[in-house]
Amino acid sequence: MSPATPAPEHGGTALELLVHGVGGATPQSMLDDPRTVRVTGDDTAAVHRRAEDLDAEEDPGRYGDRPVPEAYVWSNLTSGDGARALWLLLLPFMVVNLAHWMRPPAPGRPGLVRLYGVLVRLLALSLTVLLTAAACEVALDLTAWQCAGTPACADGRAWLGFLAADRGGWWSGPGRRLALAAVLPAALVGLLWYLSHRTWSAYEAQRPPTDTAAVPAGDPRPALGRPGFWYGRRLVARLRAAHTAAGFLTVAAALAAAPARQDTGTLAAGGLALRAALAACAALVLWAVCGRGRSERRLDRRAERSLFTRLPAAALVLLALTAVHTAWDRPGWTSAGTLPGDAVFGALTLAQGGLVTALGAVALLLQRPRRDPRTALAGLGGPATAMLACALGCVMSGGVSQRVADWLDGAATPGTAASALAGPPVLLSWQASVIPVLILLLLAPAALLGVRTALAARRLRPAVEADYAGEDPDPVRTGQIAASRARASLTDSAPVLVAVVSGTALLLGAASVAGAWASGEVPGRAFSGAHPAIAALATTTQALGSWLVGFGFLLFVTWGRRAYRDASARRTIGILWDVGTFWPRAAHPFAPPCYAERAVPDLTWRMSSWTRDTGGRLVISGHSQGSVLAAAAVWQLPSATRARVALLTYGSPLERLYGRWFPAYFGPEALSGLHRAVHCWTNLHRATDPIGGPVRVPAEEGRPAVDAPVLRDPVAYGRTRAHPLPEPVLGHSDYQADPAFAICRAALLDRLLPALPRQRTAGEADDRDGSGQGSSGRSSG
């Protein structure tokens, strides 16, 4: 706990609500006391106090010299058992959901805003179809069709014996093998539906403490302050139904295409009717995705009860009928080559490229009237991020398909003369081949950034010595501080890296499509016709790409488990993950759950109820990602409550990360509006902090600038009487250890309105809630 704050001259009860960052925390560490009590909340997220402060409101005179500290602990919203690390495998869904929130600000242009949302939702739908099609490629084509239909492949795998074509079993027929294999991708789609539904119920179904009145169209309230921003129940339900149906329809389409050339007579007519029904259901899915976006201007508590909620059941029935149709005996039907449908992956890749291009055009139109120079990628952060999501989906599809093909084929290379398998579609082989190329191309900007950081550290040495004027210069100490500042500035180079990666991914994706087209769509011969040396190099990169994908999956799961279980690992990689899961699921319902839809209402409810019941003053103190949650909660407060609330942020990425990448929600106008809306706000930052930074909100209308002077880090250059041992470079941590923290907090409390007297009505029962404070009869704040 930080040093005690001097009592404000107007007295009264004061509360400091502490909100930790992504590294996770315990109430004992936040309150600097081993004896803490949960005031309100549950095992997932809760408010804690020290045991001795439990009845602070009943004896305010005892706390006249300091605010009562409370800790809001939300670690379990983003951490837990290691099984939740599997959410990392859904990274493409999370990334495309981020693209929705990265649009430029566009006041007065609702049509373009709606078009931007529709394009991102279509991209999200294409990713669901792509990854389901990849699962169908692995289960239906490579396993059930090619390997089980080839004795040389099936004989070496006992688990495939009952499906082997040469065994003559009941499941040995091509159609029955495919129908049985379709259970795997269908089960994957069902699992995604279940996870999306369960996590919504557990984490995101928290209603904000606002009335249900709609915000008028001309209301100047920022987006994060609208009643329905943190409650997207209807849209998530609608998108979940549409994406689940799209997954089932993809599996059904893969089954329906397999026997199409073999069918005659009644079977042909039945197959045609099934394909027509699948197309009609797919049209309804597109209508569901495009027809409705987010409803933020009002708190919509209605459940989604329409034709669209029945889409998954309808698609599942069609899938069952298609499986029965495919499993029907067809004399003379044998499995040879690959299943039809190679063109599907090419069409999906071209469609995604077209959607990303259209998204870029819309983003340029949205930010044409004015452009903030600090906005990442000149307002094209959303399209670039969407391109990254598509690239991740393509790489995962191609790499996994190639890896499974290599595993099933043993020592041989799929598609060669010595191989028993034809291999995956040509485009997937090309996509697996570009993985090593992409990694090699990324080495150049990484090396450039390393050289740039070293040169920046050298240039910063005079500035460091100037900051510690009067100290005896120590070249080693100066070099350490300068290097810390230079490394911290690497965060500002993230837009360049994203631009390089997304641009490279776009070019390599186009090269993959061109290579697949040039090879004539010959299954298993993606590099046929090329020079022998080029073909050998390409085959090597293809095999290397498949191994890298397998290694990448292991790395994902390993690091994911560490991030959920180990605080230091979570602090290292958690900021990017927590930025992604901060935003509601507006584009993809299978993205990892949004913790802010639980945390923001929690904080808003706590601040509203405490100030209303006590009439006291409150400072909400947020570190790192906790500062973003605190700002979002303050935006949701009624204006009367905000008059009793001060905001203290430190190590905050509000402008450095959120303002640059999400300008419509945290841009300069939004942060200036927050400055005017909240009674008082101070931001602390260090030059050595790689995550936090200034919020760049200037003084206006008699209000001082938000940013305090840059804190020195370390607080002492050498050994002093106050610091006899060398002080560490703290960077992003331990802001409360700086004496400036207590001074700024005391100044904020002094600027708040005087505390209102507590009043009780006659005969009021002394009804207490779990916090030990009266729950009714107190004057409104």
From TrEMBL:
The chain crosses the membrane at residues 85-103, 115-135, 178-195, 241-260, 272-290, 311-328, 343-366, 378-400, 430-451, 494-518, 530-557. Residues 771-781 have a biased composition (Gly residues). Residues 761-770 have a biased composition (Basic and acidic residues). Residues 758-781 are annotated as: Disordered. It comes from the Bacteria. Keywords: Membrane, Transmembrane, Transmembrane helix. This is Integral membrane protein.
